[in-house]
Amino acid sequence: MARKRYTEEQIVGILKEGAAGAKTEDLCRKYGVSTGTFYAWRQKFAGMTVPDIKRLRALEDENRRLKQMVAEQALELQAAKHILSKNW
After folding, report:
1. Residue 54 vs residues 13, 37, 43, 77: alpha-carbon distances, Å
2. What is the pTM of this model?
């Protein structure tokens, strides 16, 4: 069976259906996900709206870029220390 990836907006819609009273098993069967996946989604996205999801995604992207910048700077610093530690 092909794996389908749902967007955060779609996940929020599915979770809203569950909050409206639909049974978890029925939702999982309808959308082709396991109950474990549904509960993981609920834990991560519970109570969030679409703008919240977009903001979360933007913050995660910014965090990833900042971590990459710090890693690059640490690598450059390590290389500079290695070069300066050599006796000329």
Report:
1. 14, 21, 17, 35
2. 0.64
